[in-house]
Amino acid sequence: MKSESRRETVVNRRTFLGLLGGSGAALMVSSRSRASIAHASASPRLPNFIIIITDDQGYSDIGCFGSPNIKTPRLDKMAAEGVKFTDFYVAASVCTPSRAALMTGCYPKRVGLPYVLSPAAWIGISPSEITIAEILKTRGYATKCIGKWHLGRLPQFLPTRHGFDSYFGIPYSNDMDLPPFPPTPLMHDENIIEQPVIQETLTERYTEEAAKFITENKDKPFFLYLPHTMPHVPLHVSEKFKGKSARGLYGDVIECLDWSTGQILDTLAKLGLDDNTFVMFTSDNGPWLQRGENGGSALPLRAGKGTAFEGGFRVPCIMRWRSKIPAGTVCSEAAATIDLLPTIAKLAGAEPPTDRIIDGKDIWSLMSGVPQAKSPHEAFYYYTATDLRAVRSGPWKLMSADPARGDGDALYNLETDISETTNVIARHPDVATRLRQLVEIMRDDLGDTMTDRTGKNCRRPGIVAAR
């Protein structure tokens, strides 16, 4: 992370696309990429990208991540055919901030979305942001979002205004339908087609839409973003999966999601797209432990959703690309959803925006199994809302003191203490000092309301909707 601050010019979506079409394209796309756009017919086909994320699924709620009572044969097979990331992170342990980070490659506070949005919110993802979908559109990709968006419910915030050709899903969490809010709607593009949404068959309908999109775009590059509604509570599953799991209703829901992933993989195989399609499966944050049997498990990690412990931020992650990612590999280097934007941009022959800070890094060396490849992150930061709670560097994690609790800093070695049970700060004062310096760098950049009670303004404002 760089400590120097800098003033940056915000480029909105229209300007960004205009630059790509004119002499200013050098700001966003390399000369090699521009040449490939001009000679697309003579170039090898660009890869397809599929990102599947579940909602509130715990670290150990997949067979290959240690679940003792949830059967996930398709995800286990996907891991056997690709790479399993054991130290993969989201940039927030709750919904909206996590999704904002994935779409933009930035920490949520940097893009002005550090809090969960309710249906009453008049804000959403800023028009100045550049999403993964928008970058891929410059390379001729077909794009679709299917599932829970949660980056703003008003038309100007919906997927169709942020790089996606079409949208099918719900605009926010499925439990946000209690009075005074209206019933949760199902949307097609920017229109409500069902209200309240029938949730029992929602995963199956998402899957059908995904298979249809893949089939319709089999002859051109595509990007499918599939943020599932489940297993966020209230849990729903169709009769086909109900009562099948030893883990109860929660297990039924996860096993349905496993089936869904299998259907998508089968569609790729049927169409001969396996070798040219990157598929990723992960969760938006850790499990909602307060929901008891209706929540997941993060074991052996500590705590879950809403916290800065590993159970809130570290999530299961599987990546598969049969011609590019070595089968049956495991990566224990730190990587995160913020890394997807720069990595996917590179793989598509484009570049991330260069007029702004992008917190994510290119992690292709980790994904492709380069020997001795290391995490590109000197530090990874754990923000809960606008509070900087922790930092990880290498195996070390420093949890900052919380004035509200009156406790002190805590240092954990995540290689030897994955459950964060033993504070070793007294034994490694030099490590703690180094990590405190990294924390101060980030406080100088984005602020920390837990410490100074003021924080800093969002770097890229403009998310407030006209009322």
Question: Main attributes?
Answer:
single chain, 467 residues, alpha/beta, Alkaline Phosphatase, subunit A, Arylsulfatase, C-terminal domain, 12 helices, 16% strand
Map the helices and strands.
Layout (H helix, E strand, L loop, with lengths): L12 H9 L9 H8 L9 E7 L18 H8 L2 E7 L5 H10 L27 H6 L4 E5 L19 E4 L16 E3 L2 E4 L7 H15 L5 E6 L20 H23 L6 E7 L26 H4 E7 L8 E3 L3 E2 L3 H8 L16 H4 L12 E5 L2 E7 L2 E4 L10 E4 L15 H18 L2 H4 L15
Parallel strand pairs: 1-7, 1-8, 2-10, 2-11, 3-4, 3-7
Antiparallel strand pairs: 2-9, 4-5, 5-6, 8-9, 12-13, 13-14, 14-15
Quick description:
The chain has 467 residues and is α/β, with parallel strands linked by helices. The chain has helices at residues 13-21, 31-38, 73-80, 95-104, 132-137, 202-216, 248-270, 310-313, 340-347, 364-367, 429-446, 449-452; strands spanning 48-54, 83-89, 142-146, 166-169, 186-188, 191-194, 222-227, 277-283, 314-320, 329-331, 335-336, 380-384, 387-393, 396-399, 410-413.
Description:
By secondary structure, the chain is α/β, with parallel strands linked by helices. The chain folds into 2 domains: 18-367, Alkaline Phosphatase, subunit A (3-Layer(aba) Sandwich); 380-452, Arylsulfatase, C-terminal domain, CATH 3.30.1120.10. It has 12 helices and 15 strands. It has helices spanning 13-21, 31-38, 73-80, 95-104, 132-137, 202-216, 248-270, 310-313, 340-347, 364-367, 429-446, 449-452, and strands at 48-54, 83-89, 142-146, 166-169, 186-188, 191-194, 222-227, 277-283, 314-320, 329-331, 335-336, 380-384, 387-393, 396-399, 410-413. The strands form 2 sheets. Strands 1, 2, 3, 4, 5, 6, 7, 8, 9, 10 and 11 form an 11-stranded mixed β-sheet that branches. Strands 12-13-14-15 form a 4-stranded antiparallel β-sheet. Helix 6 (202-216) runs parallel beside helix 7 (248-270). The radius of gyration is 21 Å and the shape is globular. Residues 1-42 have low confidence and may be disordered.
